[in-house]
Amino acid sequence: MEIPGSLEVSWNRGSGGPLAVVSREPVLQEDGTYSATSILRVCVEEWQAGEEFTCTVKHQDIPSAIVKSIRKSHTVSPRNPSVYIFPPHAEELALRESATITCLASGFRPRAILVTWTQQDRPVPQEAYTNIGPVREAGKEERYFIYSKFNVLASEWERGDTYACVVGHEGLPMTFVHRSVDKASGKPTAVNVSVILSDTDVTCY
After folding, report:
1. CB 101, CB 150: distance < 8 Å
2. Is 19 helix (H, G, I), strand (E, B) or coil?
3. Angle at CA 132, nearest 5°, toward 177 and 3?
4. Cys-Cys link to 85, which of 25, 151, 179, 200 (CB 3.0-4.6 A)?
5. Interatomic CA distance for residues 11 and 22, integer angstroms
6. pLDDT of residue 186
7. Which residue from 46, 35, 77, 65 is spatially nearest to 200, judged by alpha carbons?
8. How far is Cα 59 from Cα 48, in angstroms, rounded to an integer?
9. Are 103 and 150 in contact (CB under 8 A)?
10. What is the rounded distance in angstroms from the CA atom of residue 105 to the CA atom of residue 25?
11. What is the Cα–Cα distance from 88 to 37, expressed in whole angstroms?
């Protein structure tokens, strides 16, 4: 958008029930335009049941409202991801500046997946890491992969902090896969952490 002031974003749901919406302030982009995000938080049971959620966008620069709907697709049988975590490379650590920890989740379907990080068992802000994907894997069968890159200070890695990649996917019902690594272990460790998924984010751009 060139002018964000006239933007209106609204949500509704098939059941007509209450809505939990988080709207973020418009963000100025490098090209001088603005982008804005509105997030609808719903219960995982509602999403899994196939309820439809609709986002309506109005702005002075578009002649009529843009309406987009989303619901869970039941046409694909879920396949759980394989998850791997990789420690920083020795050449990067030799520079004593930063340390890059990488997480790979592969072979999953459907495409929707959640990848987050923890440091010393504390959640990491979303802006601290970068997710690349999901991307469809080569081949005829529908499977996807995603990379997540987490940059930390080399000093934090050297002091022995533990980092964990946490992956949630419907192929892992009510369970997150948790992979962790630290300097002392020298290699990644794997833990399955069972949690109740309380909500899911549906984002309208």
Report:
1. yes
2. coil
3. 120
4. 179
5. 11
6. 61
7. 46
8. 32
9. yes
10. 32
11. 33
Paired residues of 116 in beta bridges:
166
What phi and psi, each to the nearest 5 degrees, are found at residue 49?
-75, -10
Identify residue 61 by its one-letter amino acid code: D
Q: Is 133 left (phi over 0), alpha (psi -120 to 50) or beta?
A: left
Low-confidence residues of the chain: pLDDT under 50: 188, 191-205
* Residues with Cβ within 8 Å of residue 200, at least 6 apart in sequence: 41, 42, 43, 44, 47
How many alpha carbons lie under 13 Å from residue 88 in its C-beta half-sphere? 27
Ranges assigned E (strand) in the chain: 8-13, 20-23, 27-28, 34-35, 38-42, 53-58, 66-70, 82-86, 98-108, 114-119, 122-123, 129-136, 144-153, 163-168, 175-181, 189-194, 200-204
CB 124 within 8 A of CB 99: no
The single residue listed with the structure tokens 């396949």 is 79
**pLDDT at 194 (0 to 100):** 42
Per the structure block, which two tokens stand in for 126?
A: 């979303």
Give the whole-angstrom CA distance, residue 71 versus residue 46.
10
Say how far residue 92 (Cα) sits from the centre of its chain.
26
Q: What pLDDT score was predicted for residue 144?
A: 95
Collapsing DSSP to helix, strand or coil, 25 comes out as coil
For the entire predicted model, the pTM comes to 0.64
